[in-house]
Structure formats: structure tokens, C-alpha cells
Specification:
This protein is of the alpha/beta class. It has helices spanning 10-16, 54-60, 79-83, 103-108, 126-136, 169-172; strands at 41-47, 64-70, 88-92, 99-100, 118-124, 143-147, 176-177. The chain contains 6 helices and 7 strands; from the N terminus they run H-E-H-E-H-E-E-H-E-H-E-H-E. The protein binds FE2/S2 (inorganic) cluster. FE2/S2 (inorganic) cluster is lined by residues 151-154, 156-161, 168, 170.
């Protein structure tokens, strides 16, 4: 197993600076397994660290396309590995890789083939997910999102990861239908 760690504060900084070979205690993954039939096209849309789960899904699902957004090329990771399993479309805010702008620029041009069943899985911060869903609704109603809420207990007790309907990402997610 490989973990992607983005330095975002004291904890992740300390984690990144551990000596190789250090033993660590690890809990997770949380929530429900993500499973779809092979004849459905799964479009993964991610921004920021939301992209972290996509490599595994691109590897494990049959018919996948990936749309990923980042600040710049230095904030893209695991792209080459993911491209071995699925087409990857990139958007960067400064245009240093792929389309200049946000993932919405790519989604606006997304074309559904005749008779194709599509499911969107979105993963990222709320500011990304909201405009993304508005575009996806014109293509399908099968839209599931995993918003980057802060996760604390990870076992459904503290409510830190609840959405406005009271659903907890750590036990009811990670992907939830309708927000
Ligand atoms: S992190 Fe505590 S309920 Fe989800």
C-alpha cells in the first residue's frame, strides 16, 4: 500500500520527515467500498488532495476517465501511474499542465456517447464540488461526491465529518449522493 501525504501542517510535516523504516500505526480506510458494474462509465473528478483515491479506482474499475485539477504542475501527483489505467485530463490554475483553469473547463466539453451510462464521482473541497455538480447534472443524475471535511474520530462518533443532512463521511461515505 502507498500513502500520499500532502504537507499541510505540523502533523503532516512530522509524518513526511520520519526516517525510512519507522513503524507507524495506521487506521482506515473508512466508510463503504465503492463498487460499480463494468458496463458503466465512471468519471472521477478531483481537485487538491481529492485526487489521492483515484489511482486505485482507475486501476480497479474497467471503464474510467479521470479529470483532475490542481494549483500548478507541482501539485499534481501519481498522474503517470494513473494514466496506465485510464485517460487523465488535467487542469491547472496557472496553465503549467493541461488546460488552464479549473476542472469545470474540462467538464463543460465532456461528451456523453449515445446509450452510455455515466456515473460521476467527485472528490475535493466544497468550492470545487458545487460548480462541478451543476455541470454534471446536465449529463446525468448519477452523481456522488466526497467532500474534504475534517475527519477526527473516523468511527462515526464525533460528527466532525457530517454534511448538512447529518451524514458522516467516515461511516456513511466516502461518496454521498446529493449534497
Ligand atoms: S470523523 Fe467523527 S463522525 Fe466522522
Amino acid at each position: 500500500m502507498t500513502l500520499g501525504v500532502v504537507e499541510a501542517g505540523e502533523f503532516t510535516k512530522a509524518l513526511i520527515n520520519l526516517e525510512p523504516g519507522t513503524d507507524v500505526y495506521f487506521r482506515g480506510p473508512y466508510g463503504n467500498p465503492v463498487i460499480f458494474p463494468d458496463d458503466v462509465k465512471v468519471v472521477l473528478v478531483g481537485g487538491g488532495s481529492g485526487f489521492a483515491a483515484f489511482y486505485h479506482m482507475a486501476r480497479d474499475f474497467k471503464n474510467v476517465e479521470v479529470v483532475v485539477g490542481a494549483r500548478d504542475k507541482d501539485h499534481l501527483f501519481y498522474i503517470e501511474e494513473t494514466e496506465k489505467h485510464a485517460p487523465v485530463h488535467i487542469a491547472t490554475e496557472d496553465g503549467s499542465s493541461g488546460t488552464k483553469g479549473y476542472v469545470t473547463e474540462i467538464l463543460k466539453k465532456f461528451e456523453k456517447k449515445e446509450g452510455e451510462e455515466i456515473i460521476f464521482l467527485n472528490c475535493g473541497p466544497p468550492a470545487m464540488i458545487k460548480p462541478v455538480i451543476e455541470i454534471e447534472k446536465k449529463i446525468t443524475d448519477k452523481i456522488f461526491s466526497s467532500i474534504e471535511y475534517v475527519t477526527k474520530c473516523g468511527v462515526g462518533l464525533c460528527g466532525a465529518c457530517s454534511d448538512r443532512h447529518g451524514r458522516r463521511l467516515c461511516v456513511d461515505g466516502p461518496f454521498l449522493e446529493e449534497l
